[in-house]
Amino acid sequence: MTMALGLPLSAIGLVALLAGCGGGGAPLPTPQTDPDAYFNQVIEPGYDADRLRLVGDGTTANPGLGNTAFTRMPTTGSATYTGYALLGVNLDGADATGPRLGLEGTASMTADFAQGAITGQATNFVGGNTGPFDSTTNKYPLAAPAQYYPGTIDITNGCIGKTTCANVTRPNQMAADFSGTLTGGGNTVTTSGVLQGDFKGNPIKGIAAQAISGTLAVNGTAVPGGFFVYVRP
C-alpha cells in the first residue's frame, strides 16, 4: 500500500486544541510527564520551524531551500542531523471508517558520506485524534490534548547517492527502510516502508524526507497515511 496523504509535503502540520503555557525559566516538559505541554512547547513549534525552513509553505514568499548542489555533496566524513518527524494516520479521512491520528516526534539521521550510508530513528511521539483539515491554519487540529505514544521508528539500510542503492537517482538524494511500532491512547500503530529524501541547502542545511511506499495499521487494521522527517545539522 502506498503511503500518501493527498497533500504536498509543505502542507502537512498539526495544531493542538489547547495551547500550553510556559513558565519563565521553568524546565521544559517531557513526553512522559506532560505530553500535551510537550507537544505545544517543544514538538509542534520545532516541527513547524524545521519543515518551513527546509521545504517552505508552498508560496513564492517561502519556497524553502533548494536541493544541495551535486558538487557540494561530501564524499568523505560523516554528519548527524536532528529534528522532527510526523506519522500521519489517515489525516485526510480517505478511509471514512478508520481513525485519524497525527503523531509528531523527534528524529535523527547519521550520514556516512564515505560509505554512502545513512541510518536513524524517530521517537518521543505525542499527538492523537485529529479533526478535518483547517485551511486557515493549514493544519489538522488535534481533537483533544496530546497523548504520549511510546515506541521508535527505526531508519535502516539507508544510502546516499545514485550509485549505492535503489530509490536514489541523484547524488543529493537518500533513501532508507523504516519500521516501528507506537502504542498510546488505546492504539497500537505499526508501520514500515521506504523513506526517500533530499539534502537541502549549500552547504547542507538539512534533509527533508517522506515515505514513498509502505504499510500502516492501527490495531491491526490497515489505513492510509504518511511518514515525514525533517532534520538539520
Give a written overview of the molecule.
The protein is mostly beta strands. It has a single domain (9-232), classed as Porin (Beta Barrel). 9% of the residues lie in helices and 44% in strands. The chain is built from 1 helix and 12 strands, in the order E-H-E-E-E-E-E-E-E-E-E-E-E. The chain has one helix at residues 35-55; strands at 14-15, 78-89, 101-112, 117-129, 140-141, 147-149, 151-160, 173-184, 187-200, 206-218, 221-222, 225-232. The protein has an 8-stranded antiparallel beta barrel with strand order 2-3-4-7-8-9-10-12. The protein starts with 13 loop residues before the first strand and ends with a strand. Mean pLDDT is 89; it is low at 1-11 and 17-23.
Concise description?
This protein has 233 residues and is mainly beta. 9% of the residues lie in helices and 44% in strands.
Name its key features.
mainly beta, 233 residues, Porin, 12 strands, two-stranded parallel sheet, 8-stranded antiparallel β-barrel, 9% helix
How does the overall form come out from the CA principal axes? globular
CATH fold-level assignment: Porin
Quickly give the CATH architecture. Answer: Beta Barrel
CATH class: Mainly Beta
As a whole number of angstroms, the C-alpha radius of gyration is: 17 Å
| Strand numbers in spatial order across the main sheet | 2-3-4-7-8-9-10-12
Q: How far is it from the N-terminal to the C-terminal residue, by CA?
A: 32 Å
Number of domains: 1
Mean pLDDT: 89
Number of strands: 12
Low-confidence stretches: 1-11, 17-23
The helix/strand series, from N terminus to C terminus, equals EHEEEEEEEEEEE
The residue fraction in helices comes out at under 10%
